[in-house]
Amino acid sequence: MAQNIVIVGGGPAGVVLFNEFGSKLSASEASVIMVTPRPYFTWLPACPRMLVTEDGELEKRVLMPFPDNFNEGNRKVVLSKVVSIHDGEEKAQRFVTLDNGETIEFSVLILAPGSKWDGPLGFPESKEEDLEFIKKWRKEFAEAKDIVLIGGGAVGVELAGELVDEWPTKPVTLVHGHPLLLTATYPDKFRQDVVDRLIRRGVNLVLGDYVDDIIPKDGKITTRKGTDVPADLVISTRGGKPNTEFIRTLGSDVLDDGGYIRVRETLQLVDHPRIFAAGNAIDIPEGRHAYKAARQALIVAKNTVALVRGSDDPKTLWQYRGGRNSITLSIGKDGGACYFDVLWGLMFGDYFASLKKSRGLMIDMVKRRLQL
């Protein structure tokens, strides 16, 4: 009798897993169910540009509908949200509960819930609402006179680049709590290079300082150090938080203090050998990128196939060893910066970044690789 493999999340990890099982497991071995609230995949790295400009109608390409074959053979997409998980000793005691009250039994459960975002990346959960959300942000950006972004990670850097690309004379300020942009995951030399590139593009930087109250008063905000920054639109571009509140139903020890899922090297949850996790919500100390999520998903896929086929000896399962931390940032349509953690650390600028990401935002490559 076919076993149920349930995947929670339709992001990079979830879709990679869905495709892997469709090609590696027969209908007699497993039924594959992906639970996600949206009937489409959203390519987040392209969203800063999509939210700033109408050019190219990017919403038609960035919101990628799941194809019909996602509901054929041994695969099915369930449009819903998981609100709780029960993991018992017997098969009938393993199930997830959906927000409509229905339950789905699982033999293997894979958690790939991704992140929750504030501000422009905090998308709703329907196509109609998403399109209105996109229009709203485009209007706010267009009408704003002084824009301030709070948080100088990849989202803040790329959104600042898109804003000055679209409106070169509009004041855009980026406030970041550290002396250099991004995080210490990357070397100072690269982080300083990103600082220099934004300054050359006309972005105002306030580094090593914080903003506690992001609501403008009298046309400005004031940092902790007392710096007044002109502002009529202030946006949080801090990193996303793990979308894991529903996983607490497994027990208080499944998440760390930051809300990330505790996993073993096999990407199994501690004390839950038939539950795996992958993507931005796991507690592995490395950069959280779509390509990392996809690599983790491939390890989870191999281990899930092994469990389905009766090989549950931990010694036979694959282990995720992490990888090098590389990043490509787009800074407008023709600019950017790249860092590759190989040799002595390779850095590239506008030309390479524009070829790799900035011009096309990797949309066609992602659609092809995810079979969308």
TrEMBL record:
- For whether the record's keyword set contains Flavoprotein, the answer is yes
Domain FAD/NAD(P)-binding residues, every copy: 4-297
Q: Which UniProt keywords apply?
A: FAD, Flavoprotein, Oxidoreductase
The GO terms this record gives for MF are: electron-transferring-flavoprotein dehydrogenase activity; flavin adenine dinucleotide binding
This protein's GO cellular component annotations are:
cytoplasm
Q: Which residues cross the membrane?
A: none
* Gene3D superfamilies named in the record: 3.50.50.100
InterPro entries per UniProt: FAD/NAD-bd_sf, FAD/NAD-binding_dom
Name the family: Belongs to the FAD-dependent oxidoreductase family.
Q: Could you identify this protein by its name?
A: FAD/NAD(P)-binding domain-containing protein
Query: What is the organism field in this record?
Result: Agrocybe chaxingu
